[in-house]
Structure formats: structure tokens, C-alpha cells
Amino acid sequence: MKICEICSKEYNPEFYNKTRQKYCTNCKKIGDRLKAKEYYLKNKEKFLLKSRKYRKTKIGKNNRKKELSNLKKRHPLKYKARYMLNSKIKEGKIRKRNSCEICHTSPTHCHHEDYTKPFEFVELCQPCHQFLHNQYRKMEIF
């Protein structure tokens, strides 16, 4: 038995077939995720450029169509609300403020509290939008 250098819990390195391992499996997973995120943030432009190029290819376009088709089947009300709102915005009948209603940054996403009311929405930046959904998940609303 060894003691993890991060969380100080005992673990059996032979169970994982790694005798030189200094961390328990949970701490290793967390560390690997942090390294991957750090690498992504350092090379974000490279990843975004690669993603844009992929979306322009035939395979990328087909995969995007499949994603939208699946969304339409799994969440028809959500899809309809998004579609109706985006069409009104494109027509110019609804204007977006383009600043987050919480922290006043941009760009923004439209958040619907109720998909049966597609024109009632809150404009949130991506971090605030994600935070809101995380709070809902904790409260088990979604």
C-alpha cells in the first residue's frame, strides 16, 4: 500500500498495475484533466481553427446535420423555441442587446426559462449561462 501525494489516502498501486504511480486513480484523472485543459487554453486558436476547417468539410457538414436532426427528435420543444427566436432575430423583429444581463459582457446566448414561450428569454454570456445550468442541475430542475 502507498499513500497518495495529493489526497493522502492509501491506495494499492499493484491493483492498477503501476508500481511507480505516486497518485491514486482519482487524483491522476483530475491531474490529467487539468493538464488537458491547460494545453487547450494555450493552443485554443489552433483548436478553433481546426474545428472551423472540419465544419467546412463534407463530413463536418453531415455530422452537424445529424446533430441538429437528433436535437430535433430528442427535444422538439427546445428546437422549435430556438428556431422561432432565431428567425425573428434574423428578420429584425426582435433585437438582442448583445450584453450579458448578469455581468454585462458579450457575446451572449439566449436562455429560455420556458420553451413554450420562445420570445421570453434572458441574454447571458457563456460562463453565466453555464453557471445557471449547473445551479439547475444541483437543484435537479433539469
How many β-strand runs? 4
What's the multimeric state?
single chain
**What is the string of SSEs from the N terminus onward?**
EEHHHHEEH
Q: Taking all residues together, what is the mean pLDDT? A: 88
Give the strand line-up of the largest sheet. 1-2
The helix content is: 40-55%
Shape: elongated
Reconstruct the topology from this structure.
Blueprint: E1 2-3, E2 10-11, H1 25-42, H2 44-56, H3 58-74, H4 76-91, E3 109-111, E4 122-124, H5 126-139
Antiparallel strand pairs: 1-2, 3-4
Structural overview:
Helices cover 55% and strands 7% of the residues. Helix 3 packs across helix 4 (76-91). It has helices spanning 25-42, 44-56, 58-74, 76-91, 126-139, and strands at 2-3, 10-11, 109-111, 122-124. The chain has 142 residues and is mainly α. It has a domain at 2-42.
Quick take:
This protein is mainly alpha-helical and 142 residues long. Helix content is 55%, strand content 7%.
Structural features:
55% helix, two-stranded antiparallel ribbon, 142 residues, two-stranded antiparallel sheet, mainly alpha
